[in-house]
Amino acid sequence: xxxxxxxxxxxxxxxxxxxxxxxxxxxxxxxxxxxxxxxxxxxxxxxxxxxxxxxxxxxxxxxxxxxxxxxxxxxxxxxxxxxxxxxxxxxxxxxxxxxxxxxxxxxxxxxxxxxxxxxxxxxxxxxxxxxxxxxxxxxxxxxxxxxxxxxxxxxxxxxxxxxxxxxxxxxxxxxxxxxxxxxxxxxxxxxxxxxxxxxxxxxxxxxxxxxxxxxxxxxxxxxxxxxxxx
Length: 230
Prior knowledge:
The chain is mostly helical. It has eleven helices and no strands.
């Protein structure tokens, strides 16, 4: 094996180890990561870790991108497991359930993505590509339904002028061919899905709802009705 390949593999393994330890710190201490603390746990001098992540922000960015991709993969897998592709409601519920399962299994990573902003950190543009995977999966269900004629355009009267313009721009950039009003309904469902997950994970349902999974499914079925999914 060429020396360059060995070095690249060793570097990749070190980066993965750093990120794994950083995720444990997220779970224990929240997003206030310290590169020095990660280095200490790895048994390396503080200066050595900067060869892999020159700053805390670069490590946070790597964790955020990984988190968005992991969540997106969970959503895409949930959608793919519905063999009847014409079952739009079944696909919607499967994706929403997959989002919740991932969040419940990875609460610290979910909080990094959707919790309070990390003081002093501004996510770079490179996180956007990873972030769009999950909403693209959900909105893709509506695109399939519209292309098949199962879903129809509700008409522009559902939207005010400024909202219509914003959604038209988003549609043209990410969701070609989908009417703005359908995109608005899909976005409402997507926002409610993540809002329901956040309420559960961040303790807003404590002392109120015990049947968390069943209540989540109820909400997502209500959103499927609102969107008009058959």
